[in-house]
Amino acid sequence: xxxxIPYVTAALLFxxxxxxxxxxxxxxxxxxxxxxxxxxxxxxxxxxxTTVRAALPHGGQxxxxxxxxxxxxxVGVGLAIVLQLYRLRASVAVDTVRLDAAPASELDEPRVxx
Length: 114
Hints:
Number of strands: 0
Helix content: over 70%
Radius of gyration: 20 Å
């Protein structure tokens, strides 16, 4: 098997993922771009496992399985963060979110001194 084609495909997938992370404004699309990058890493791990027989048999496939588990956990936590962001700010646009300010609902409420 020639490993050039999977490596080039993985590089293109990873490049598309990096482009998606850097250029997208929607938080859900940024999460999808991160998933694309993780899938490119999986392709590299499995290709390296089939072409290079190291001391660990099927080591690349085991690492790919760990990356898949990590990606599943990342989707769960990421979507929970996006949903909470939408509830607080009514927008999932990454450019409009200020991380150093309090949510708008907390700023509008008058504070009662205790």
